[in-house]
Structures are given as structure tokens and as C-alpha cells.
# Entry
Amino acid sequence: MEHHELWQAVLGEIELQISKPNFLTWLKHSQLVEKKEGDGVALVGLPNNFAKEWVKNRYHKIILGSLRNFDSSIKNVNYAVIHQNTVPEREITSVVNKKQDTTVGIPLPLELKIDPKSNLNPKYNLSSFIVGSSNELAHAAIQAVIKDVGKKYNPLFVYGGVGLGKTHLLQAAGNEIIRTYKNQISVLYVTSEKFLNDVVAAIRNKRMEDMKKKYRDVDVLIIDDIQFIGGKATTEQEFFHTFNALYENNKQIILSSDRAPSAIPTLEERLRSRFEGGMIVDIVYPDYEMRLAILKTKIQNQNITLDEKTIEYIASKVQRNIRELEGVLNKVVFYIQYKNTSIDQKKLDEIINETTQTTSKNLTAQEIIKSVADFFEVPVNDLINRSRKKEVVEPRQIAMYLLREILKLSYPHIGEKLGKRDHTTVIHACEKISKDIMQNSQLNQKILLIKERLFKT
Ligand code: ADP
Ligand code: MG
# Structure
């Protein structure tokens, strides 16, 4: 059997033994690189270090067992980080089809006068971007880039959660560069999805040269939500070359992502190290003062009035997403103008709940615990019983942390649900995880992946 076929057969077997999300996260991008006949060692390639370590620690037994089922000459398995240079035909066609289905017939809102050359939306500018402790570093880095295009921070990588202003900041930077340098510096803004589509279309229509020109001729290339190129081999490869071409010519590259480069599980190692070679800044959740400032500025800009207490109440309740903050404000204002009355507490809460529901999605403690157990492939019962097994220590601490963070359960209540632990143990676990997340990108990544699965609809 050829390597590829053998590996497909092995994956087919493993797929039946582990959960689908785990299979997709860890093994979908794996490959069998070589099989040494002499010593019977197979080499399995994974796209990056994190995946390599994870697969080695967790799936080695099943992989070895399954390989041996098909080829008894195999005695052991080694793991390595391998760049994916080839892409199966299937992947390309499926992307094309999907895109054709979804892009047809979606009219753009009329207000968007997107500049066809740069792809930038003029509505985003720096003066409407409120700066506070949560984003001041990102803002400062963007300003440095505008001042010293291509020279100072290259690439600039901005990451942070949904609705925290990444797109706003990147687009504003593009607009500002065009304005400051009076069109002498060309800018191109794309989402990574658009980039992916362009690559796929260029391959399909045999117009690679046009595509290369489009992306490599600009002075500033901005790619938004770069996390989506992870795991798509052709796109990553094309991006890698584009990146190098621009970088070598001192052209500026600005990227955004919902997480740090180290936490994109399917990102190729060589791209990751390119990203890490530049400047990486994050945007975190805005604090109360900043949320208040954002609301007040928006109110002022729109020439509307809203009583102080209502503004403060919204700022205190909507904590994790500036888009939702705006959404609540718009709905409240609409309600007041439409009904021509003031808003009562009940209606206000209703609006806040319906707007923020997508992120706080009515998850139950059981769902969270199960999702952690599934991720680590430990039995749910080991988490909720007093089990002292070593392999459940970290999963249980993470489960405690998530129950606290997502559901805001009390410490004693969490202790009750997870191993009948004392509330001080729970406090310790939550504090430990919050602290470790800052320093340990692998831990951070695990938690992001669990959350991603939890919040996926
Ligand atoms: P992201 O790309 O991180 O998901 P966006 O840039 O789309 O977030 O921001 C969501 C909404 O919040 C946008 O309407 C944006 O204008 C607004 N917004 C985000 N951050 C700020 C800020 N610091 N000041 C003013 N508005 C902001
Ligand atoms: Mg965005």
C-alpha cells in the first residue's frame, strides 16, 4: 500500500474511535511521511508543534495499533512537524462549491461605499476609535505603522476576541495611510476568506499570475481574520510566498486574528514563526470606564439623548463585545424613539438579553463539563467524582474555570458539581488557570478550542 492509502485507512479506523471534533482538530491535517523498511519506524507529520505534541501524547497508542493492523512490519511511530505542500484535489473543489453557493445574491447594504481598489470601508477611521487600557497597545502599534510604513513593525499582528475592534482598527489604519500619503502608498484590505477564494479561483481559472500581481504589487497588505487560513494548504503556501515577497521588499503587512499565532492549531509552523518575527499585540475586553466612554461617544455622534442611569446600566451589563454594546444602544434608542416613551427596566433587560445571547448561549454546567471531558478524552464521571487520577487534574481545573467564567456559578456550587471539592480548592483552580493562561499559550489554546466547540451553533 502507498503511504497515502495506508494513512487514509488508518485515519478511517481512528475516526471511529475518537470524537469527531477531536479528529478534525488533531488528525485531519496529519500525513504519513515515511516508513522505514529496515527498522519499521513510521513517521507521521503534523502541521505544527502543538498538534505534534498533542497527537504524540494522546493518540500514539491508537495510531501505532491501527498502523500495525494494516502493516505488521511497523514497530514504532515518530512524529514531526511537516509543512503541507500538496493539497488533495477534493479540498479545492469543495471550497469552490461552498463559496458559489453562499456568495450568490447577497446584496451589500447601500451605505457601504467600499473603495474598489483598496477594499476599504471609509466609515472606519481612527478618530472614532476609542482608546482605553484594553486596546492602547494595539492602537499605538497601528500609529507607529502608519508613521513608518513597512519599517517599524512588520508584520503587525493584532489579535483579540470577537467584536473588540480589530476590523475597525485595521481598516482605519488603511484609510489613514491612504490619506496621510495622499495615495502614494497603495493599500489592499482583504479578509482571509476573500484571499482563500482568490487563490482557489486563480487555480481554477489558471490565472495565478494575475493573482500574484494583485497581492504582491501593493505597499500595504491587510488581511483580516487570518486564523481562517490555518489548515488550508494551498492558501497557506500562497500566502507564505506573498508574505515573503512583500516582506523582502519592505512592504507592510498587517494581520488580525481572534487568537495568538501560537494558538491557531492548524497553522503551519513556518508561517507562525514569520508572524512571531514581527510585532504581536492583543486587544482585550474593555473595562467599565471604556465601555461607558464608547457608549457616550456614540450617543454624542448620533445626536441622541439617553439618561445617564440607562447608559451606565448598559455599560455595566454588556461586557465582552463592543459590537453588542452598540447593538443594545441602537435597539434602546430605536425603542425610545419609536414608542416615544422612556424605557423601563424590564424592556431594557430584555434587549440586553436578546442581544448578548449568542455569546452567553444558554449553556448548562453539564454541557461545559462534558465538553471538557470530551476534549481531553477522559470520562465525565472522573471529573464529577472524587477521582484523583493524574490525568483528570488539569481537565477538572479547566472545567472549574469555565463554569466560573461562563456561567458565573458560585465557588461552592462549582465544588459541589466537580468532585465535591471544597470552595477554596475551586478558588485556587480558577486563579491558577487565569494566571497560567497569560503565560502558557498551550493552555490558552486548549481553552480556546473548548470554548470554540461550546459556542459553535
Ligand atoms: P472585530 O473585528 O474585532 O470582531 P469590529 O472591528 O468589527 O470587531 O468592531 C465591532 C464594532 O465595535 C464595530 O462597529 C466597531 O466600530 C466598534 N468598535 C470596536 N472597538 C471600538 C473602539 N475602540 N471605539 C469605537 N468603536 C469600536
Ligand atoms: Mg473583524
